[in-house]
Amino acid sequence: MDEFIIANRRFRSRLMVGTGKFSSNEAMLEAMEASGSDIVTVALRRVDIENPQDYMLKHINRDRFLLLPNTSGARDAEEAVRLARLARAAGCEPWIKLEVTPDPYYLLPDPIETYKAAQILIKDGFTVLPYINADPILAKHLQEIGCATVMPLGAPIGTNKGVKTRDNISIIIEQARVPVVVDAGLGAPSHAAEAMEMGADAVLVNTALAVSPNPRMMAAAFKKGVEAGREAFLAGLGKKRKLAEASSPLTGFLREIK
Amino acid sequence: MTFFEEINQYDQKEVLEQILAKKPSDVENALHSDRLSLDGFQALISPAAEGYLEPMAVRAHEITKQRFGNNILMYVPIYLSNECTNGCVYCGFNACNKIDRKTLTLDEIEEDARTLNKNEFRHVLLLTGEDPNRIGNDYLVDAVKKIKHLFGSISIEVYPMDTDGYKQMVEAGVDGLTIYQETYDPELYEKLHPFGQKRDYKWRLDTPERGGEAGLRKIGIGALLGLGNFYTEAFFTGLHALYLARRYWRTQVSVSFPRIRPADGGFAPLYSVTDKQMVQGICATRLLIPDAGLVLSTRESAQFRDNLIPLGITQMSAGSCTAPGGYAHEDESTGQFCIDDDRSPEEISRIIRAKGYEAVWKDWDPAFLERAS
């Protein structure tokens, strides 16, 4: 069976979904359901973490989904660490999607502060899933200090551009010993399929679902895209060849020369 | 280079001439460019663009949706004081106006804050006039400390402070600063501000930079539309926002579009800013800075606000009262100006929903600012 395992925990689905940007909470819940995901990520800044009546905390079924809090909005390691600890103190599982994005415009991850925060949180007993640029060396560093996954971006958040960092993600996938989750920038099921065909262990999608006119249907489409990409990867894709092979070899006559 | 130095490189009359000279072909080129140049921005705010409002709106809508999703952040102002020593001729709090003056006590502030907290608000904007003998940094620090447990985000729209003052605010738990230049035209500025500390154009223009230096996370700017010529005000507001976003790259910059409203003192707008121009300003600013927050207050009518929601707006106030103490007790002292959209927050959030958007009440957490001691 093709299991997806993060930090010894088994998941059926290789599609993670985000909860921001939806036009309503109902649309978000429907998309989560249709995606078949097991892991949903929630921005801590969007929830009243200590209030059990908070809509998201109340309505996301935590027996069904792993609620993965994220530190989106944190500008440095200190802020991210503080937010993560707050979530744990409020009863969330000690899993954290680490996002340190000091530039509020492109929301690109800060490698230095992300690394620092990961060090502290891992020592603190957290399972850390860091959002990073597609930097293979940073991925190795984070893996070495004990991150549970690495989550390189396909393209800047919300751009829907697909796997623009393809070459570097290939290197990360080739070398990683932890699951590689392609996060950010995937705008179509075909992008998700592409990442999975490349051998990514999972993908995370948010904007493409949230801003679709039909989030539920789009979530179902991404589910299929992820499954198709995964199966193609397992089956083994045919190698791309530079030259066509003629069915009747052009140099076959050479064999006939005695 | 400071923004004061940057703006001084422009001859404002020349800028106006450039904008008025834009042709439909300039607008089309701007609309088809991947990244809007300042020249293209001029075309989009020009009279030539009035025939292109629909394609501008379509692009502004698409960009906003991609970057901000289907969310509108809700906030509410709390007026702490209407005492003021400035003579801004357009403002209801003008020192010469004979109105009931009031500065809320800390308990009164808390009372207002609790009322707003019950109404779901988690983002508040604290406002005062400028009166150094009555309202100082310590008063604001005490106010913030008193109410911060009730909110996710506290911003201030008060008198300009020095950098240390803003650092003091950040430490107390303030994450955002709103400061309008009112008008970017220095000569007009002088006429409109005949006395008081606000008379100093440069001190006010430098204020967002001092806030940025102090590490404030959100900075909001704007021109009070109706004071100066719309075209130059829109241009310099965009230029200012772009400057701040590039220089203080960790700070979220937002732009407001406050159109002047009737107030005590009976000031009449010097220029009329049409609804079409408002739409033009909002869409062009969105195309200039795809990631800027764009803010719309209850100054505008309910119908107009509803129609602007999909055009690039990311933040709206609701249920606002511009008189100190007005939330806990109705008919308190006199407000700064008359609001137009007086619908309740629930009503506005219902309409936002009907437009296919979600009203977001909390999108920040005080935990970001609590430095380890």
Tell me what you see in this structure:
The complex is a heterodimer of chains A (258) and B (373). Helix content of chain A is 38%, strand content 15%. Chain A has ten helices and ten strands. In chain A, the strands form three sheets. Chain A has a five-stranded parallel β-sheet. The termini of chain A are far apart. The mean pLDDT of chain A is 90. Chain B has one domain: Aldolase class I (TIM Barrel), CATH 3.20.20. Chain B has an eight-stranded parallel barrel with strand order 1-2-3-4-5-6-7-8, surrounded by four helices. In chain B, β5 (218-221), α12 (230-247) and β6 (252-256) form a beta-alpha-beta unit. Chain B is globular. At the A-B interface, α3 of A face α5 of B.
User: For the residues shown, what is the average pLDDT of chain A?
Assistant: 90
CATH superfamily of chain B: Aldolase class I
Number of domains of chain A: 1
Mean pLDDT of chain B: 92
Assembly classification: heterodimer
Strand arrangement across the biggest beta sheet of chain B:
1-2-3-4-5-6-7-8
Q: Largest beta sheet of chain A: what is the strand line-up?
A: 5-4-3-10-9
> Number of domains in the coordinates of chain B?
1
For the sheet with most strands of chain B, the description reads: 8 strands, parallel, barrel
Question: Helical content of chain A, roughly?
Answer: 25-40%
Architecture per CATH nomenclature, i.e. the level-2 architecture of chain A: Alpha-Beta Barrel
Radius of gyration of chain B, rounded? 20 Å
Radius of gyration of chain A: 20 Å
Query: So how many helices of chain A?
Result: 10
Morphology of chain A: globular
Q: Roughly what fraction of the amino acids of chain B lie in strands?
A: 5-15%
Q: Percent range for helical residues of chain B?
A: 40-55%
The separation of the N and C termini of chain B measures 35 Å
Uncertain runs of chain B: none
The strand count of chain B comes to 9
Q: What is the β-strand count of chain A?
A: 10
